[in-house]
Amino acid sequence: MLAIPAIDLMGGKAVRLREGDPRQATIYADDPCAALREFLGAGARRVHIVDLDGAFAGRPVQTDLVRRLVAVAHEGGAEVEVGGGLRDTAAVLAMLDTGADYVVVGTLAVRDPDAVSLLCRQHPGRIIVAIDARDGLVALAGWQEPTAVPALALAKTAAIWGAAALLHTDIARDGLQCGPAVDATVSLQRAVPSVLVIASGGVGSLADLDALRAADVRAVVLGRALYEGSFTLEEALARC
C-alpha cells in the first residue's frame, strides 16, 4: 500500500482543516518546503499537495509555491499529485506545466465531464479524479456544494474516461482521525478494479493503516495524523 503524505496550502503555510472547513484550520508549518523535505527524508515516494485557497476561490492561487514544492519533491525522487481550484481545462494545463506528475480534478469532473474525459485522453496516466463524498454523494467546490451524484457513479464514469486514479475522500472523517471509510473505499475499488483508488480522510492510527491494507486498499493519503505525531511517516511506510 502506497502511503502518501499530504501538504495542504493556505496563505503560504501548511495547514489541516476539519471536515474541509476553512474556519477550522490548524497551521502546522510556516515553510511547506521544509515540511516536504522532512517527508522526503522519511522515505516518501509520492506527495499529495492541495491548494486550499484555490479550492475555495475556484481558481489556482498558490501556483508559484506549488511549482517550488514540485521541484523539491523531484529533487528528492518523489512524485507529486496536486489539486485545488482546477475548475477548467486551462487551470489543469497550467498545473501540469508546474511539472506535477498528477493533477487532481473533482468539481470539473461533474460540471464538465467532456473536458475531463478529453484531458484523460490527452494526458494519459496523469489525471486523477477526486471523489469527495458525504454519505455516498459527491460534494463540489471545496466540499461546500452538495450534489445528488453518487460516488459510485462518478467512479465508474471516471474509469471509462481512463483516469489515472480515483482519490476517495470521506468528508465527514477528514481531519478528525476517527478511522478511514474502509468499506466505502473497498466498494469503489471493487467497482473499478482496473483503476487505483486512493483512500483519504480519517486515518488516525497505525491500526487504521492495518485495516486498509487488510482490505486490499492500495494507497492512502495521510494528513493530520502525521502532523499531530500519532505516528511517523517512517512507521507508516513500514506498515504499508
From TrEMBL:
Reactions it catalyzes: 1-(5-phospho-beta-D-ribosyl)-5-[(5-phospho-beta-D-ribosylamino)methylideneamino]imidazole-4-carboxamide = 5-[(5-phospho-1-deoxy-D-ribulos-1-ylimino)methylamino]-1-(5-phospho-beta-D-ribosyl)imidazole-4-carboxamide
Classify the source by domain of life. Answer: Bacteria
Coiled coil stretches, renumbered: none
Keywords in alphabetical order, please: Amino-acid biosynthesis, Cytoplasm, Histidine biosynthesis, Isomerase
The answer to whether UniProt assigns keyword Amino-acid biosynthesis to this entry is yes
Active site as annotated: D8, D132
* Designated name of the protein: 1-(5-phosphoribosyl)-5-[(5-phosphoribosylamino)methylideneamino] imidazole-4-carboxamide isomerase
Q: Which organism is it from?
A: Nannocystis pusilla
Give the encoding gene's name. Answer: hisA
